Amino acid sequence: MNKKSAARAAAVIEIGTNNVRMRVSQWSKGRLATLDRLEYPVSLGHDVFSSGSISFDSLREISSVLSKFSAALLSYNIEKPKVISCTALREAKNRALVADQLKVRNGVDVTVLEDSQEKAYIYQEIIEKLNGCQLENGNTMIAYVGSGSIGVAVYDGQRVVYSQNISMGALKLHDVLRSLRQEAEDFHYIIEEYLDTIFNRIAISGFQVKNLILTGSQLELVASLCEAKKSGAPYEISVKKLTSLYQSLRTATAESIANRFGISEERAALLYTSLSIYTGFLRFCPQAETVISPPVDISEAILRRTLMPKAASTLAADLRESAIACAQTTARSFGCDLEHSAAIAGTCSKLFDRLKKIHGLDSSKRLLLELAAILHSCGSFVNVRQHNQCTFDLIKGMDIFGLRQSEVLETAFVAGSISDNLSVEENPDFAWLPMEERIVISKMSAIFRLANALDKSHRGKLRDLKITLEDDQVIFKAKASENTLLERWAFAESAQYFKEVFGLSPELSIKFDMI
To answer: Which residues of 202-214 are buried (b: 16+ CB within 10 A; e: fewer)?
Structure first.
């Protein structure tokens, strides 16, 4: 290991499905420089995908590896590396126990990245590496194939406008269909049909994809076998060679693939499932002659945000834009009124900023209010009579770009609270939440309801809205040229709940245009 001292160095340890990896990096001369990488094989994926839990034998092995890595980091004066895990712990039933034991044994706090968080890091890292690539003008599909999950996104050149996470990766696919492989002679038909059921649910036909980005598990091996060019960071893999490689292995056994390429049978099996997934994605960009494949690593993405100047704020801004764009794509598919949603989002943001010293909420809640405004009408597509409950149920089950599941749940409660009381007596879902969480959601809902009331007719009647605080009142002043009886009624209905939450009386003053 390189023993030289590294100024402003940082380390990330990733507990993965196949190994535990450590990367030490330094920001030097305007770029992220890797100082050291260590890797130790640990087969957690088979544990999780077969039994649902991580065994104590594996736990002890992880603990031992972390001890060795921590000792090695002392030469860099790094005592607190960032320890992360994605699929390996995310899908383990005993993840809390494993994290607790690693805290006790090794003194480390393990951050388990949720699927949408992981993919947000990955996509931003991919986009970072696309600089200088010759891409056709138009939309680019990004597919990241991990060991236990697949992320699919559409990038329009500025932001991610569609995102979907699939709980199926190369290793997981191998383990799920392991028994069938031993029984079926035509296993390739089974795996292709199984993948068809997954790919047919990816609704991106309306985006007219011009470029295809494929990366993830087994990329380096696939790129090598396809004799891919590597101009700069990304590989350029010929679609013909990728297809030809899969066809040559389509009916082969893991043993024959291993013998052919001089690799282990386990890696050969993963190569087969990875190729099955990679070639399956070609249907989304049938005119593509080349697939761009930048090698990406979640630890590198996190280190870039840790060490690169202003990277954290840039990521936050990009995440916000992409989260809103993805939510708009979803809302559009449900036939929502996006002009109405934009009006509510704008008022929510304005009211949130004005009440900053009153509500005491974290600035991240502002984005959740905007997302709730965009998605709040989705439930009407399912059932107009029970649209609030339907909206809640739909959003609760969504993957919203870059958001943790707890944030998605908050968004669902706020969006579904237009006329329903958030009380433990009337809302059993709300009753299960800790009191602190209920208070946060109540504050956001009070803001959201008032904002929604001000465009109750969906006609944008109020304009030039100004919000001021005066003693125990919140004064809303606006101009209008039409009848605003409906808005005033809705405002009065929502004002009572707002007063119960904040102790402030909302007052609406409308100045009508002279005829």
So the answer is: bebeebebebbbb
